Amino acid sequence: MPGQQYPEGMYGATRLGSTSMGSKPVSGLFDFDKGTKLVACSEDGKVYQYTSGDWAVESGARATGNSTTEHVRWGGVMFYGQTSSKNLLVMCNDADADDPVKYDGTDVTSLGGSPPGDGKFPVAWQGRCWMADHSTLYYSAVDDCEDWSIGGGGGSINVYRGFDGEITGLAAFANQLFVFKRSSVFRIGPTATFSQLNIRNVSQVNGCISHQTIAEGEIGDRNILFWISEHGIELSDRLMPLPALSLWTWLATSSRI
After folding, report:
1. What pLDDT shows up at residue 238?
2. Rounded to whole angstroms, how far apart are CA atoms 127 and 21?
């Protein structure tokens, strides 16, 4: 089962079990509460849950009527709020018409607390839920993904606005928040307050083409963050990116062939 920070995409299939979505493909597949349930989003605008041996459309006001635009991809992350004592799967996509949603194990409804309407790439880090839109990072209050107010402790940070376009992905790794653009990578270290002063540029060469390519894995005894740039597969072991690596080279040097 994929880790909660890196839900697995299953893009392209038009059938979940015996449930057909016609010609519309799956655009996101997520793990709810560490294997408790599987949840899937589709380009038919619906959210599905695996139950009773097969898939069925979930209940709730936002389980249907979402974007049916082709190539709209969903991201999702589990958020375990101590303030609210809720276990929520937070999901959002890159369609401007769709505000972020939550799944509580029963219903799919709109995420409360005035999150960024066009927020995407949700991750959980430092007890907060984070999303991005254009070049801006948004973060929730501590331990409550349904409070994005400044008064409650939420806020936003511009990440090098005007440089290298929009944010293309986020990842929580090695107690850092990695922020990707098309040709650059940034990181934010643990801190009680957030501002542009906390942003460190890691690379101005090897960015990320898509949030869905980011994954955590291992090489030997090292935890590695992988992603795909315009140059190929990229790696980072903690604070600095390693040289671009072809898949064949990685397989060969890791004795996987």
Report:
1. 63
2. 36
**Which tokens sit at 240?**
């600095």
**Residue reference for tokens 């955590």:** 216
What dihedral angle (degrees, nearest 10) is formed by the CA atoms of 218, 219, 222, 225?
-50
DSSP E strand boundaries for 9-119: 15-16, 19-20, 26-32, 37-42, 47-51, 54-57, 74-81, 86-93, 101-103, 108-110
Measure CA 181 to chain center: 14
pLDDT score, position 172: 96
122: its two tokens: 């949700």
Please indicate, yes or no, if residue 77 is contained in any of the structural domains.
no
Residue 175 belongs to domain spanning: 169-257
User: Is there a domain that residue 200 lies in?
Assistant: yes
Number of structural domains (the chain) is 1
**In the numeric block, which tokens belong to residue 99?**
């505000």
Block means of pLDDT (10 residues each) for the chain, length 257 residues? 38 75 87 92 94 88 94 95 88 92 96 96 97 97 96 95 95 94 93 86 90 90 89 76 47 45
The verdict on residue 163 lying in a domain is: no
Condensed to tens digits (0 to 9), the pLDDT of residues 188-224 reads 999 888 888 889 998 888 899 999 999 999 888 888 8
- Is 189 domain-assigned? yes
pTM of the model: 0.87
> Strand, helix or coil at 248?
helix
